């Protein structure tokens, strides 16, 4: 209760401050004065509006993420039988009636799923704009698919792709005269083998290497240079790499490998088996299968994994005379053709992947592939 002050007669109310509470009718003497409520109401309203504003922003940003990650495609889960094995994958088609051309995806190294953790979808959408569907599958043992990709050779992978092409050509929504391959990195050793097994209309090679062992040495030295390794550290790592190469040449088993180099940082037994099977890969002998086939060679300027100068020289040596090779270089691009300034920052690449996934890639990368596909002439219909 408010007590009277000497400046006013007893029993009267103090003057009402309209900034504290609204003016009310005079009440009888002795009636308790209502507590100020307007400030608390204003505080509540401010908090409520702040919460509402935050919720609006969250919902709006969520809507942007959903919108930016919704692609103009019709996707179908597919199962392909291949030599007693099953491939589980995705067929991403342009909206509307076919038949569509087809791009068959050949993954690089590692446990890759059909969408490459959604990284393929902007590429699929770009291809769809050129009238092409995209076919990709989980590597064996990835995302619940049967098998184990580490038991495969490059020839095994080529057999998979050839079987997928045969499966696709049997579909009414696929134009069998416009079927080709898109392959990244390790996929470069697979695609010419596919071309030797079945007719293809084109190849898009993204940072493929020529020789497995040369690529490994280039990758090792590039990574050491990137992290600023000392000359002594470089010497130690090169010596260790030379030891591993010797063991591979001698067909050493995993036990001997571990006994020689130690367990710390060593390959698993499955990985050692995979490298032992494939370390002699060299595309030079297989590239002639691509002579006369339109080939788009995509090369970034910041590739730590692959020596793109060696790749370009090898492809030109084998394919230039046929007149069907196109080479494109991309500035500010890494091995995956992601912009280097994004790949260098975990925060930036995460935000762009969420809010603008089509902007992850080097400038011109998606458009150049789309143009290349639009210019592909349908191959003559044959049984091969």
N- to C-terminal separation? 99 Å
How many structural domains can be distinguished in the coordinates? 3
Q: What is the H level of CATH, i.e. the homologous superfamily of the largest domain? A: Alpha/Beta hydrolase fold, catalytic domain
Instruction: Please identify the structural class as seen in this structure.
Output: alpha/beta
- The helix content, as a percent range, equals 25-40%
Question: What would the average pLDDT be, to the nearest integer?
Answer: 88
CATH top level assignment of the largest domain: Alpha Beta
CATH architectural designation of the largest domain? 3-Layer(aba) Sandwich
- Strand-residue proportion: 15-25%
Number of strands: 8
Uncertain ranges = 1-28
Strand order of the largest sheet: 1-2-4-3-5-6-7-8
H/E order of the elements? HEEEHEHEHEHHHHEHEHHH
Q: Radius of gyration in whole Å, from Cα?
A: 32 Å
- What's the main sheet like? 8 strands, mixed
Shape: globular
Q: How large is the count of helical segments?
A: 12
In short:
By secondary structure, the protein is α/β, with parallel strands linked by helices.
Characterization of the model:
- This protein is α/β, with parallel strands linked by helices and 384 residues long.
- The protein folds into 3 domains: 34-68; 74-211 and 281-374, Alpha/Beta hydrolase fold, catalytic domain (Rossmann fold, 3-Layer(aba) Sandwich), CATH 3.40.50.1820; 214-278, no CATH class.
- Helix content is 39%, strand content 15%.
- The chain is built from 12 helices and 8 strands.
- It has an 8-stranded mixed β-sheet, with helices on both faces.
- Helix 9 links the parallel strand 7 (295-300) and strand 8.
- Helix 2 (121-129) packs parallel to helix 12 (365-374), helix 3 (154-169) crosses helix 4 and helix 5 packs antiparallel against helix 6 (231-249).
- The chain is globular, with a radius of gyration of 32 Å.
- It starts with 37 loop residues before the first helix and ends in a 10-residue tail after the last helix.
- Residues 1-28 have low confidence and may be disordered.
